[in-house]
From TrEMBL:
Keyword Membrane found: yes
Subcellular location: Membrane
GO terms of biological process kind: proton transmembrane transport
GO cellular-component term (any): membrane
Segments passing through the bilayer: 20-41, 61-79, 91-112, 150-170, 176-195, 216-238, 244-270, 282-302, 364-389, 437-457
Principal location: membrane
Domain of life (superkingdom): Eukaryota
Family the UniProt entry places it in: Belongs to the monovalent cation:proton antiporter 1 (CPA1) transporter (TC 2.A.36) family.
Keyword terms of this UniProt record: Membrane, Transmembrane, Transmembrane helix
GO molecular function, one term: antiporter activity
Protein name: Cation/H+ exchanger transmembrane domain-containing protein
UniProt entry tagged with the keyword Transmembrane helix: yes
Membrane topology per record: Multi-pass membrane protein
Species whose genome carries this gene: Caenorhabditis nigoni
Amino acid sequence: MHCVARLHNTLHNFLNNREINAIATTLLIFLSLYISIITLLGENFLNPLADHPVTTTNEDVTVRTIFVVFILLVVGIIVAKLSKALRLPPLFGCLALGIVIRNIVVFEQFFVFPPFVETMIRKVALVMIVIRWGLATDVQFLYENAVMPVTIGLVTAIGEIIAVTIASYFILNISFVMSIFCALILVTVSPAVTVPAMISFKDKNLGSLKRIPENVLAICCVDNLFCVVVFMVLSSIIFTDAPIATTILLNAGTIVFGIIGGVIVGWLLWRFPRSDAPHTQFARILLLGAICLSMMIGTYLIKYSCSGFLAALITSAMCAMKWSTDNKDKIESVVSTYKYIWDSFALPLLFICLGMKFDCSTLTWEIVFLCIAVIAIGLLVRTILVMLVTLSSHINFKEQVVVALSLLPRATFQADLAPTLVLMAAPFPDMSKDAALIMKAAILSVLVTAPIFDILLNLVGSKYLSRYDAKDTPVMEQNLDKSYMNGDHVDDSIYAARPKTYSEYRSETVIERY
């Protein structure tokens, strides 16, 4: 034991040495940048400078692609700002711009780039989503209050998946397997709409007494994690020629490997760089982005994307746990940097690329109404399940409405999962037709739900959630204690502001609770 303790102390002192820590951090940065750049370019990891047949056509395509992406980015940023000025989600304007480009012949012929570039744009945007998701996840809150978020997240997601699977099978007339994929894509809640609204409510102290914003963020985390992991695992099983048993074992292994890898990388980023080192925040931003890019895009290229997804999410969440407490700047600069990257680069390009998949020439009013019917059935089932699951919880009817509305917007994951499904289904003629229809349904779900529920959530949340001032807490508690002890009349407003105990709620009827 004495030797183990000495070894632990020696290792601890070695890692905390300023010069050694700086050297190790520099090596980590260069290694992560190397891997991320190689994966983005799709080059050979061991021999990235291998000779390629160079032609004038290839050079022209590369220059044209860079120019087209730059033009789309500039126009997308402008359109996103205009949408925000009109009180619409920025993604709505970018999606509409992509649809316009796709359906006007002149624009369609000009704004063309290779499929690999479009795939990398989507994957980089997905990495930004996962990093921001992990940084926003309150692991401590989720650990201490897991019952409500996990119950609502899983029960409502599974219920909506079942409803949308049945609806798409009979209404859209697609195969059962593709109906499941359709459900997994359409039911995933959008962090791009829900998270900003919840952060706004937290800043205004709306619903803070019962921690409604924190609960909603935790519910979204559970919902997204379940749907995305199931989608990735199922796609690796369906779109392969390998035996099912082998594929399932490989997926189980990659999930375990992703979890372990995420924990190890997260622990490394706790140690490197030191919290008191020069340019700590810059090094952390660079390391987190490069490592998550390497893990997610690298595993995607070797067809085990679930492993990289879990590893990147766990790494980001672990970084948020440590970095939020170990320095005076906390984690604000890291969060604000990735928010800027998402708003200024990833969001415009992601949703423009999604809109460019929407071909109106193959669309009929019948398809539009059928897709909207499937979407509406799923939203209705989700709302009913949220209200039922939260009946015995500590939140009242108005807060139940806010929770239900927060789980209805669709946007970010639909923009990546739907094109990914189309790409994977391309070698299978029977499935590719269904995948194209699912793509249309996914785009329609973004067009319909994102602006409507973004506006409704902010309006209803501001009206239905009660404002809580922490300064009034001692006075409220004193009044409550005095009233109960002396048998005085308890003011209803004070009682309403106080979180009720489980026994008090169980003694009420459902009507009294509302």
